[in-house]
Amino acid sequence: MIENLKALPQNLRDSVVRYTLHPTSDRERSQATFHNLFLHLQSVRVHRNTLRVAYSFGLGLITTASFVLLTLTGILLMVYYKPSTELAYGSVKDIHFVVPAGRFIRNIHRWAAHLMVVAVFLHMARVFYTGSYKKPREFNWLVGLALLVLTLGLSFTGYLLPWDQLAYWAITIGANIANSPREVTDALHITKFLDVGGFQKQLLLGANYVGQEALIRFYVLHVAALPILMAMLMGVHFWRVRKDGGLSRDETAPRDPNDVFSPTKTYGLMAVVRGRTPAVGRGPEGTVQSWPHLLWAEMAVFMFTVAVTLALSYFFDAPLKEMADPAIPENPAKAPWYFLGLQELVSYSAFMGGVGIPTIALIGLGLIPYLDRDPRGVGKWFGGPEGKRIFWLSTVFGLISVVALLALTVNCGWLRNWIPSIPQPVITLINPGTVIVLLYAAWSLWILRRTASLRLSAVALFTCFLAGFVVLTSMGSIFRGPNWQFYWWPSQWPVH
Amino acid sequence: MFDAGRRDFLGLAAIGSALAALGTALAGVLRLPKPAVLPGPMRVYKLGDPAQFAVGSVVKMDAEQLYLFRDERGFHAISSVCTHLGCIVAHSEREGFACPCHGSKFDTQGKVTGGPAPTGLAWLEVSLSPDGQLQVNGETEVSRGTRFQVG
Ligand code: HEM
Ligand code: FES
Fold it and tell me: Is A279 or A206 the better-scoring residue by pLDDT?
């Protein structure tokens, strides 16, 4: 028995780690990888292209790392947070000013959330511009879209929890956007039979106003339902990345003559069995061992994310306004920045801006891989020089048209200012938001006619939407002041 | 041949019943979050003795979310909830109502004059409660221009 006790540390370790922690040969590294639940999410060997920073910029991983940070800090915040209309504000204030390290943890949670939204948008853009949504990755593109929606949903639900003025009014606006299909059903006089808007709002708020029921619902969504869904879908997303053959790459590129190629994958590739493998220092098919190359890269991205988040959290505090007051709206009442483009659209028509155009954009994004079936150009930024040219042209077109339209709206108003008695459905259909969507669609169709390439026209459309998103978001964040009036700079806002 | 048909049939029946069970379960799950009764305070407000409001006065009622007006022709109440996305509008005698959230504008009668609001501000029913107090019903709209005369 004494013998066994003495051997306990060693045996414990051996029972946990099935193979060695310090693999020395490729064979041991492979075994270490696929005998571990977490490591085997990645294949044993990765292509060298996958590790190229300028290819993926590690954006998917930055998103993942921020999610991990959010989960950890979120659990800590839950220790003190109280989801009740009377206590919520106070508890957040306590976290900020009283709880040891509370402010820092809250800041990290806030900054990681911002970072995650930025990273997920950039990640989507990188996947799009490298043509990585093409066969066989169509489905993973759809999973990615679901992750994008979940990311935004998590930010939206989290925004209410502090129960301060910003939170209260942003969510009032958000919930009424869910209600906005009434703009259409009312105009058609069918709200009595088919009240989609009212139903959505009630589902979200559990009442007709933002109160205790709404707070509990948002809390449940924010701390349980959405994160669990997110974690599951992330699992699917990663698994598909691996099963779809790792990151996309240009299969047509000339191969390095020093690489060794075998016609089919064999266990020899994983270095499990000893085969007649390759020249010294060269892996089969231009690949390298995941352990340690990919692991180092991943570690670096995680460290980078943590470092950026910590630095921001150290210097900049998360905001907390006065406690929610249902009698006086915050003026201007702004949602978090990534929704301000939407808020700008909503200020033309609630239904089109809040429901119609986002739905069109999501459906359009989802259709991309099924419309553009051209297998060429995968794994190259913009698919080559032609695509790059279309990208720049579309950026210019996208920016100019949206800025011109905004300038017109700000200076001359819109239909109702010109014809005061104009019926609402006309404005719902024809407003700066729908006009810009039409302009972009027309541009992309024109590119399609000119080039006869669906890929290029997709690049045109995606680029235009990106330009529109950036301009509208800046408009909402920077140039809109009290009463949603245009100001060149926040310092010009009237004091009140 | 016949065997295969029977197998297909059994298979289809099994799948069908599984789907039916799943559908029922899903309906139940989705039914729960839709509230049967909407919680919230009664939206019928007693505002006290009508005589306390002078002719020509405008009173902003915060908790009730409305403006109460009294002019020569009687009382009327206009909801202060913007019909666009639910912010609270501000009132000025000359210009009417303005919403801080997305810049909707309404004239003194609550009709839309600018901005994204799809309809005008609601006029609410004013009446006298059995105990002689002025009462506004936040659930019932009346047509624009309706006045309530006391006595
Ligand atoms: C929570 C959000 C998301 C997370 C955590 C995430 C994570 C990842 C990670 C770690 C990768 C590996 C490669 C890389 O780092 O670029 C990846 C690849 C991929 N992602 Fe995402 N992603 C998210 C959202 C999205 C979105 C919004 C889309 C597109 C609509 C998308 C589509 C894809 C596709 C198609 C790939 C394969 C790319 C290739 O093979 O080159 N993902 N994702
Ligand atoms: S809520 Fe009044 S203008 Fe949007």
Answer: A206
